[in-house]
Write a structure and sequence with these properties.
With 415 residues, this protein is α+β, with helices and mostly antiparallel strands. It contains 10 helices and 22 strands. β5 and β6 form a beta hairpin. The chain is elongated, with a radius of gyration of 26 Å.
Protein backbone atom coordinates (compact mmCIF):
# COMPACT_ATOMS: atom_id res chain seq x y z
CA UNK A 1 0.00 0.00 0.00
CA UNK A 2 1.41 3.40 -0.84
CA UNK A 3 0.10 6.92 -0.83
CA UNK A 4 1.15 10.36 -2.01
CA UNK A 5 0.61 11.75 1.50
CA UNK A 6 4.04 13.06 2.44
CA UNK A 7 4.96 11.77 5.87
CA UNK A 8 8.57 10.80 6.35
CA UNK A 9 10.55 9.22 3.55
CA UNK A 10 11.79 5.93 2.21
CA UNK A 11 15.54 5.48 1.79
CA UNK A 12 16.54 2.74 -0.62
CA UNK A 13 19.76 1.01 0.40
CA UNK A 14 20.99 -2.07 -1.47
CA UNK A 15 17.50 -3.14 -2.47
CA UNK A 16 16.16 -2.85 1.06
CA UNK A 17 14.15 -0.04 2.58
CA UNK A 18 14.39 1.83 5.84
CA UNK A 19 11.68 4.22 6.92
CA UNK A 20 12.63 7.48 8.59
CA UNK A 21 10.02 9.67 10.26
CA UNK A 22 10.30 13.12 11.76
CA UNK A 23 8.82 12.35 15.17
CA UNK A 24 11.27 10.98 17.74
CA UNK A 25 8.58 8.62 18.98
CA UNK A 26 8.38 7.01 15.57
CA UNK A 27 12.02 7.16 14.42
CA UNK A 28 13.45 3.72 13.69
CA UNK A 29 10.23 2.15 14.88
CA UNK A 30 9.77 0.22 11.64
CA UNK A 31 11.53 -2.67 10.08
CA UNK A 32 11.20 -3.26 6.34
CA UNK A 33 12.43 -6.65 5.30
CA UNK A 34 12.17 -8.75 2.13
CA UNK A 35 13.48 -7.54 -1.19
CA UNK A 36 12.18 -4.03 -1.78
CA UNK A 37 12.57 -3.67 -5.53
CA UNK A 38 11.29 -6.90 -7.04
CA UNK A 39 11.67 -5.95 -10.68
CA UNK A 40 11.83 -2.89 -12.87
CA UNK A 41 11.47 -1.77 -16.46
CA UNK A 42 13.55 1.15 -17.65
CA UNK A 43 12.84 3.14 -20.83
CA UNK A 44 15.40 5.78 -21.78
CA UNK A 45 14.50 8.08 -24.67
CA UNK A 46 11.96 5.52 -25.85
CA UNK A 47 14.32 2.54 -25.81
CA UNK A 48 14.23 -0.24 -23.25
CA UNK A 49 17.40 -0.88 -21.26
CA UNK A 50 18.32 -3.14 -18.39
CA UNK A 51 17.98 -1.89 -14.85
CA UNK A 52 21.52 -3.04 -14.10
CA UNK A 53 22.91 -0.80 -16.83
CA UNK A 54 20.77 2.08 -15.64
CA UNK A 55 21.87 1.74 -12.00
CA UNK A 56 25.50 2.22 -13.01
CA UNK A 57 24.79 5.72 -14.37
CA UNK A 58 25.18 8.89 -12.34
CA UNK A 59 21.60 9.84 -13.19
CA UNK A 60 20.41 6.93 -11.05
CA UNK A 61 21.04 8.92 -7.87
CA UNK A 62 18.80 11.69 -9.16
CA UNK A 63 16.07 9.14 -9.86
CA UNK A 64 16.39 7.76 -6.35
CA UNK A 65 16.08 11.28 -4.93
CA UNK A 66 12.90 11.69 -6.96
CA UNK A 67 11.68 8.30 -5.79
CA UNK A 68 12.11 9.25 -2.13
CA UNK A 69 9.69 12.12 -2.56
CA UNK A 70 7.07 9.95 -4.22
CA UNK A 71 6.99 6.76 -2.17
CA UNK A 72 5.64 6.87 1.36
CA UNK A 73 4.36 4.12 3.57
CA UNK A 74 1.00 3.82 5.30
CA UNK A 75 1.80 2.91 8.88
CA UNK A 76 0.20 -0.45 9.41
CA UNK A 77 1.70 -3.88 10.03
CA UNK A 78 1.62 -6.33 7.17
CA UNK A 79 3.18 -7.35 3.88
CA UNK A 80 2.48 -5.19 0.85
CA UNK A 81 3.12 -5.21 -2.88
CA UNK A 82 3.18 -2.04 -4.89
CA UNK A 83 3.72 -0.51 -8.28
CA UNK A 84 5.35 2.85 -8.94
CA UNK A 85 5.55 4.28 -12.44
CA UNK A 86 7.21 7.63 -12.96
CA UNK A 87 8.75 9.66 -15.73
CA UNK A 88 11.47 12.23 -15.27
CA UNK A 89 12.73 14.66 -17.89
CA UNK A 90 16.42 15.46 -17.52
CA UNK A 91 16.75 17.77 -20.53
CA UNK A 92 20.14 19.46 -20.69
CA UNK A 93 21.87 16.65 -18.80
CA UNK A 94 24.02 13.87 -20.21
CA UNK A 95 24.93 10.41 -19.03
CA UNK A 96 26.89 7.39 -20.14
CA UNK A 97 24.88 4.22 -20.69
CA UNK A 98 26.83 1.12 -21.72
CA UNK A 99 29.67 3.46 -22.70
CA UNK A 100 27.39 5.50 -24.97
CA UNK A 101 26.80 9.20 -24.32
CA UNK A 102 23.11 10.10 -24.14
CA UNK A 103 21.73 13.65 -24.13
CA UNK A 104 18.28 15.18 -23.53
CA UNK A 105 17.37 12.31 -21.30
CA UNK A 106 13.81 11.24 -20.65
CA UNK A 107 13.60 8.27 -18.31
CA UNK A 108 10.50 6.23 -17.56
CA UNK A 109 10.88 3.63 -14.81
CA UNK A 110 8.39 1.17 -13.38
CA UNK A 111 9.29 -0.40 -10.04
CA UNK A 112 7.48 -3.42 -8.67
CA UNK A 113 8.29 -3.79 -5.03
CA UNK A 114 7.33 -5.66 -1.89
CA UNK A 115 7.86 -4.65 1.69
CA UNK A 116 6.98 -5.79 5.15
CA UNK A 117 6.25 -3.50 8.09
CA UNK A 118 6.51 -4.60 11.71
CA UNK A 119 6.06 -2.27 14.65
CA UNK A 120 8.09 -2.23 17.83
CA UNK A 121 6.30 -3.13 21.06
CA UNK A 122 6.70 0.45 22.27
CA UNK A 123 5.00 1.80 19.17
CA UNK A 124 2.21 -0.78 19.30
CA UNK A 125 1.19 0.69 22.65
CA UNK A 126 1.00 4.17 21.14
CA UNK A 127 -1.16 3.62 18.07
CA UNK A 128 -4.82 2.84 17.59
CA UNK A 129 -6.14 1.61 14.24
CA UNK A 130 -9.70 2.48 13.22
CA UNK A 131 -10.58 0.31 10.23
CA UNK A 132 -13.21 0.99 7.55
CA UNK A 133 -14.33 4.47 8.54
CA UNK A 134 -15.87 7.45 6.81
CA UNK A 135 -13.34 10.27 6.86
CA UNK A 136 -14.05 13.93 6.05
CA UNK A 137 -11.45 16.54 5.18
CA UNK A 138 -12.69 20.16 5.22
CA UNK A 139 -10.79 23.36 4.50
CA UNK A 140 -11.72 26.94 5.44
CA UNK A 141 -11.99 28.88 2.18
CA UNK A 142 -9.85 31.99 1.83
CA UNK A 143 -8.28 31.64 5.27
CA UNK A 144 -4.71 32.35 4.11
CA UNK A 145 -5.91 35.40 2.19
CA UNK A 146 -7.83 36.58 5.26
CA UNK A 147 -4.68 36.28 7.39
CA UNK A 148 -2.95 38.73 5.04
CA UNK A 149 -5.79 41.20 4.47
CA UNK A 150 -8.35 41.00 7.29
CA UNK A 151 -8.29 42.47 10.78
CA UNK A 152 -6.51 39.70 12.71
CA UNK A 153 -8.46 40.43 15.90
CA UNK A 154 -11.79 40.04 14.09
CA UNK A 155 -10.57 36.88 12.33
CA UNK A 156 -9.31 35.48 15.63
CA UNK A 157 -12.66 36.20 17.30
CA UNK A 158 -14.62 34.51 14.48
CA UNK A 159 -12.34 31.49 14.38
CA UNK A 160 -12.33 31.10 18.17
CA UNK A 161 -16.11 31.34 18.29
CA UNK A 162 -16.38 28.71 15.55
CA UNK A 163 -14.09 26.32 17.44
CA UNK A 164 -15.95 26.86 20.72
CA UNK A 165 -19.37 26.37 19.10
CA UNK A 166 -18.30 23.31 17.11
CA UNK A 167 -16.58 21.71 20.10
CA UNK A 168 -19.77 22.08 22.13
CA UNK A 169 -22.52 21.46 19.58
CA UNK A 170 -20.92 19.27 16.91
CA UNK A 171 -17.90 17.51 18.43
CA UNK A 172 -19.78 17.37 21.77
CA UNK A 173 -16.61 17.74 23.83
CA UNK A 174 -17.48 17.46 27.50
CA UNK A 175 -20.36 15.07 26.86
CA UNK A 176 -20.00 12.31 29.51
CA UNK A 177 -20.96 9.67 26.95
CA UNK A 178 -18.48 10.98 24.37
CA UNK A 179 -19.18 12.34 20.91
CA UNK A 180 -22.25 10.85 19.26
CA UNK A 181 -21.18 12.07 15.83
CA UNK A 182 -17.49 11.21 15.49
CA UNK A 183 -14.81 8.82 16.68
CA UNK A 184 -12.18 11.53 16.11
CA UNK A 185 -12.38 15.21 15.21
CA UNK A 186 -9.39 17.55 14.77
CA UNK A 187 -8.80 21.19 13.86
CA UNK A 188 -5.53 21.59 11.90
CA UNK A 189 -4.81 25.28 11.26
CA UNK A 190 -7.38 26.04 8.50
CA UNK A 191 -8.49 22.43 8.02
CA UNK A 192 -10.69 19.94 9.89
CA UNK A 193 -10.53 16.14 9.91
CA UNK A 194 -13.53 14.04 11.01
CA UNK A 195 -13.59 10.25 11.50
CA UNK A 196 -16.79 8.23 11.86
CA UNK A 197 -17.60 5.49 14.30
CA UNK A 198 -17.91 1.95 12.77
CA UNK A 199 -20.01 2.17 9.60
CA UNK A 200 -21.69 -1.21 10.03
CA UNK A 201 -24.21 0.53 12.29
CA UNK A 202 -26.68 2.77 10.47
CA UNK A 203 -26.97 5.25 13.34
CA UNK A 204 -23.22 5.93 13.17
CA UNK A 205 -23.48 6.84 9.49
CA UNK A 206 -26.48 9.09 10.16
CA UNK A 207 -24.74 10.81 13.08
CA UNK A 208 -21.57 11.34 11.02
CA UNK A 209 -23.45 13.00 8.16
CA UNK A 210 -25.57 15.08 10.52
CA UNK A 211 -22.39 16.16 12.30
CA UNK A 212 -20.76 17.14 9.00
CA UNK A 213 -23.88 19.06 8.00
CA UNK A 214 -23.99 20.87 11.32
CA UNK A 215 -20.29 21.79 11.08
CA UNK A 216 -20.74 23.19 7.57
CA UNK A 217 -23.71 25.25 8.82
CA UNK A 218 -21.86 26.72 11.79
CA UNK A 219 -18.83 27.62 9.68
CA UNK A 220 -20.93 29.24 6.95
CA UNK A 221 -22.80 31.54 9.32
CA UNK A 222 -19.54 32.44 11.08
CA UNK A 223 -18.29 33.69 7.68
CA UNK A 224 -15.72 30.88 7.53
CA UNK A 225 -17.26 28.66 4.80
CA UNK A 226 -15.85 25.17 4.30
CA UNK A 227 -15.06 23.08 1.25
CA UNK A 228 -14.27 19.40 1.47
CA UNK A 229 -14.92 15.76 0.73
CA UNK A 230 -15.84 12.50 2.46
CA UNK A 231 -13.94 9.30 1.69
CA UNK A 232 -13.71 5.77 3.12
CA UNK A 233 -10.65 4.05 4.57
CA UNK A 234 -8.55 3.21 7.62
CA UNK A 235 -7.38 5.76 10.17
CA UNK A 236 -4.38 5.43 12.48
CA UNK A 237 -4.08 7.58 15.58
CA UNK A 238 -1.54 7.80 18.38
CA UNK A 239 -2.73 7.58 21.98
CA UNK A 240 -1.07 10.92 22.79
CA UNK A 241 -2.70 12.57 19.72
CA UNK A 242 0.72 13.55 18.34
CA UNK A 243 0.36 11.80 14.96
CA UNK A 244 -2.54 10.57 12.86
CA UNK A 245 -2.67 9.21 9.32
CA UNK A 246 -5.14 7.72 6.88
CA UNK A 247 -4.91 5.90 3.59
CA UNK A 248 -7.73 8.21 2.43
CA UNK A 249 -5.93 11.53 3.05
CA UNK A 250 -4.21 11.87 -0.33
CA UNK A 251 -7.40 11.41 -2.36
CA UNK A 252 -9.37 13.62 0.05
CA UNK A 253 -6.98 16.56 -0.26
CA UNK A 254 -6.92 16.27 -4.06
CA UNK A 255 -10.72 16.08 -4.24
CA UNK A 256 -11.14 19.08 -1.96
CA UNK A 257 -8.82 21.26 -4.04
CA UNK A 258 -10.55 20.51 -7.36
CA UNK A 259 -13.87 22.03 -6.26
CA UNK A 260 -14.78 25.67 -6.83
CA UNK A 261 -17.50 26.41 -4.28
CA UNK A 262 -18.37 26.06 -0.60
CA UNK A 263 -19.70 22.58 0.10
CA UNK A 264 -18.78 18.96 0.75
CA UNK A 265 -18.96 16.05 -1.72
CA UNK A 266 -19.15 12.29 -1.17
CA UNK A 267 -16.38 10.41 -2.99
CA UNK A 268 -17.20 7.18 -4.83
CA UNK A 269 -15.56 4.85 -2.29
CA UNK A 270 -17.78 6.30 0.45
CA UNK A 271 -20.96 6.70 -1.60
CA UNK A 272 -21.98 3.03 -1.77
CA UNK A 273 -21.27 2.57 1.97
CA UNK A 274 -23.37 5.59 2.89
CA UNK A 275 -26.31 4.80 0.60
CA UNK A 276 -26.43 1.17 1.68
CA UNK A 277 -26.71 2.19 5.33
CA UNK A 278 -29.00 5.18 4.88
CA UNK A 279 -31.36 3.67 2.33
CA UNK A 280 -30.96 -0.07 2.88
CA UNK A 281 -29.58 -0.63 -0.61
CA UNK A 282 -26.84 1.24 -2.41
CA UNK A 283 -28.98 1.83 -5.53
CA UNK A 284 -32.31 2.58 -3.85
CA UNK A 285 -32.26 6.40 -3.75
CA UNK A 286 -34.55 8.24 -6.15
CA UNK A 287 -32.88 11.60 -6.61
CA UNK A 288 -35.71 12.97 -8.72
CA UNK A 289 -37.71 13.21 -5.49
CA UNK A 290 -35.02 14.75 -3.30
CA UNK A 291 -36.23 17.54 -1.05
CA UNK A 292 -34.94 20.15 1.35
CA UNK A 293 -35.16 17.46 4.05
CA UNK A 294 -32.67 15.16 2.25
CA UNK A 295 -29.40 14.92 4.19
CA UNK A 296 -27.66 14.26 0.85
CA UNK A 297 -28.37 16.03 -2.43
CA UNK A 298 -27.40 15.04 -5.96
CA UNK A 299 -25.80 18.12 -7.56
CA UNK A 300 -23.59 19.05 -10.48
CA UNK A 301 -20.66 20.45 -8.47
CA UNK A 302 -18.55 23.22 -10.06
CA UNK A 303 -14.88 22.36 -10.41
CA UNK A 304 -11.91 24.49 -11.35
CA UNK A 305 -11.11 25.16 -15.02
CA UNK A 306 -14.84 25.68 -15.72
CA UNK A 307 -15.57 21.98 -15.31
CA UNK A 308 -18.29 20.24 -13.26
CA UNK A 309 -19.15 16.77 -12.02
CA UNK A 310 -22.25 15.20 -10.48
CA UNK A 311 -21.79 14.21 -6.85
CA UNK A 312 -23.78 13.42 -3.76
CA UNK A 313 -23.30 16.43 -1.49
CA UNK A 314 -23.97 17.17 2.16
CA UNK A 315 -27.05 19.34 2.66
CA UNK A 316 -25.99 22.21 4.93
CA UNK A 317 -28.46 24.88 3.74
CA UNK A 318 -31.74 23.72 5.28
CA UNK A 319 -31.14 24.92 8.85
CA UNK A 320 -29.59 28.26 7.86
CA UNK A 321 -31.73 31.39 8.02
CA UNK A 322 -31.79 33.87 5.13
CA UNK A 323 -29.55 36.19 7.14
CA UNK A 324 -27.03 33.41 7.89
CA UNK A 325 -26.88 32.37 4.24
CA UNK A 326 -26.16 35.97 3.28
CA UNK A 327 -23.31 36.14 5.82
CA UNK A 328 -21.53 33.21 4.20
CA UNK A 329 -22.17 34.49 0.68
CA UNK A 330 -20.92 37.95 1.63
CA UNK A 331 -17.59 36.47 2.78
CA UNK A 332 -17.24 34.58 -0.52
CA UNK A 333 -17.48 37.79 -2.59
CA UNK A 334 -13.69 37.99 -2.29
CA UNK A 335 -13.60 35.15 -4.84
CA UNK A 336 -16.13 35.87 -7.58
CA UNK A 337 -16.30 32.33 -9.00
CA UNK A 338 -16.76 30.63 -5.62
CA UNK A 339 -19.39 33.22 -4.66
CA UNK A 340 -21.42 32.69 -7.85
CA UNK A 341 -21.08 28.90 -7.71
CA UNK A 342 -22.19 28.72 -4.08
CA UNK A 343 -25.08 31.13 -4.76
CA UNK A 344 -26.17 28.82 -7.59
CA UNK A 345 -26.26 25.92 -5.12
CA UNK A 346 -28.41 27.98 -2.73
CA UNK A 347 -30.78 28.82 -5.62
CA UNK A 348 -30.91 25.12 -6.58
CA UNK A 349 -31.78 24.26 -2.98
CA UNK A 350 -34.53 26.91 -2.80
CA UNK A 351 -36.39 25.18 -5.66
CA UNK A 352 -36.54 21.81 -3.90
CA UNK A 353 -39.74 20.55 -2.28
CA UNK A 354 -40.06 21.82 1.30
CA UNK A 355 -41.07 19.17 3.86
CA UNK A 356 -41.13 21.56 6.80
CA UNK A 357 -43.95 20.84 9.24
CA UNK A 358 -46.28 23.70 10.18
CA UNK A 359 -46.77 24.22 13.92
CA UNK A 360 -49.05 27.14 14.76
CA UNK A 361 -47.28 30.19 13.26
CA UNK A 362 -43.90 28.42 13.24
CA UNK A 363 -42.21 25.69 11.19
CA UNK A 364 -40.27 22.53 12.01
CA UNK A 365 -37.39 21.96 9.60
CA UNK A 366 -36.01 18.44 9.31
CA UNK A 367 -33.08 16.52 7.79
CA UNK A 368 -33.95 12.84 7.59
CA UNK A 369 -32.63 9.34 6.95
CA UNK A 370 -34.29 6.01 7.67
CA UNK A 371 -32.35 5.91 10.96
CA UNK A 372 -33.58 9.24 12.29
CA UNK A 373 -33.56 12.97 11.67
CA UNK A 374 -32.45 16.38 12.91
CA UNK A 375 -35.05 19.05 13.49
CA UNK A 376 -35.22 22.75 14.24
CA UNK A 377 -38.07 25.08 15.20
CA UNK A 378 -37.95 28.27 13.12
CA UNK A 379 -39.98 31.36 12.21
CA UNK A 380 -41.03 32.34 8.68
CA UNK A 381 -37.55 33.77 7.95
CA UNK A 382 -35.80 30.60 9.03
CA UNK A 383 -34.53 32.02 12.34
CA UNK A 384 -34.31 29.44 15.11
CA UNK A 385 -36.96 29.79 17.81
CA UNK A 386 -36.35 28.51 21.34
CA UNK A 387 -39.59 28.02 23.29
CA UNK A 388 -39.88 29.36 26.82
CA UNK A 389 -41.40 26.11 28.03
CA UNK A 390 -40.83 22.57 26.74
CA UNK A 391 -43.23 21.57 23.97
CA UNK A 392 -44.01 18.12 22.58
CA UNK A 393 -45.24 17.85 19.01
CA UNK A 394 -46.43 14.60 17.36
CA UNK A 395 -45.39 14.49 13.69
CA UNK A 396 -45.49 12.05 10.80
CA UNK A 397 -42.24 11.73 8.84
CA UNK A 398 -42.20 10.04 5.41
CA UNK A 399 -38.96 8.56 4.08
CA UNK A 400 -39.32 6.59 0.85
CA UNK A 401 -42.05 4.04 1.53
CA UNK A 402 -41.59 4.27 5.29
CA UNK A 403 -43.84 6.37 7.52
CA UNK A 404 -42.87 7.20 11.07
CA UNK A 405 -45.08 8.82 13.70
CA UNK A 406 -42.79 10.47 16.21
CA UNK A 407 -42.96 12.91 19.08
CA UNK A 408 -40.55 15.83 18.77
CA UNK A 409 -39.52 17.51 22.01
CA UNK A 410 -38.16 21.06 22.03
CA UNK A 411 -36.58 21.85 25.40
CA UNK A 412 -37.83 25.07 26.96
CA UNK A 413 -35.34 27.72 28.10
CA UNK A 414 -36.92 27.82 31.56
CA UNK A 415 -37.12 24.02 32.03
Amino acid sequence: MSTDFNFGEVRIVNQSAKISLGSKDFESSFECSSEFIRSAKCIINGEATSLDSFIKTKIYNEIITFLKKKVTIFLKEGEYDGNLIFEIDLAGKTMLLDEKKIEKINVAVEFKYQYKISLTDALKEKIVVYENRLIAFLDILGFSRALENADLKVLFANYSQLIDTVNRKVFQIGNPSGSLNFEKARFLFDSIVLVSKPVDQILNVTNFLNGCSSLLEEAFKQKLPLRGAINYGDFIDSTDDSVFLSSAFSALVKEEKTQNWAGCVIMSDAESIILKELEGHENLCDYKNQSKASVLLKYNVPLKDAKSKEYLCVNFINFLSDEEINLGLEYLKGDVEKHINTLNFVNFFDKLFDESIVYRNLFIKILKTRAGFRCQLVDKNGNEVKPIQTIKIPVEVVHGEERMVLEIIFQGERD
